[in-house]
Known about the structure:
Blueprint: H1 3-29, H2 36-43, H3 47-51, H4 57-80, H5 87-104, H6 106-114, H7 121-139, H8 148-168, H9 177-192
Helix pairs in contact: 1-2, 1-4, 1-6, 4-5, 4-6, 4-7, 5-6, 5-7, 5-8, 5-9, 6-8, 7-8, 8-9
Amino acid sequence: MGVQERREREKQGIREEILEAARTLFVKEGYENVSIRKIAEKIEYSPGTIYLYFQDKADILAQISEETFARLERKLVAINQDATVEPLDRLRRGLRAYIQFGLENPNHYVITFVQNSFQCSAGARCFGELLKGVGFAMEAGQIKEADVVEISQALWAGSHGVTALLITCSGFPFVEHGRLVEQMLDILMEGVRRR
């Protein structure tokens, strides 16, 4: 390995350290309470080093959000492209994937979906996949004719709600999480199903 390749790998490693430290601190202390100095202290670098990689704290949060949404987007695209599954079932699988992603990545989820406003392009593309899924099911006559955006937002609100509650309200005596998620998905799907 050459010197240039080693430097690039080291730069990428430092960048990832910064992002991981920021994720942890944003979740633990809240975005507003974290400074560049705190992030630098956590990784034992000077604040100036962080500015070599990111413009400011908002830039760090934007990068975390983009990376998180991009991972979710890949899952949702794959589900929407699976033509072997009926559109309504694909829609349900997409909602379940969203919820599972949040439960499997609670720190990322809280930072991106709870503490951050909906501002990143990958997030908009994820919502676009939900719009597609609703559109496919509507075209197939499996869900009622209505405003695609309104139905998509309602489905997203229900999915986001159960995900955020399961992550942030750990003291509540929820029934088994898998059962609760499936019950909620049953209710959402029944609410939009064409009669």
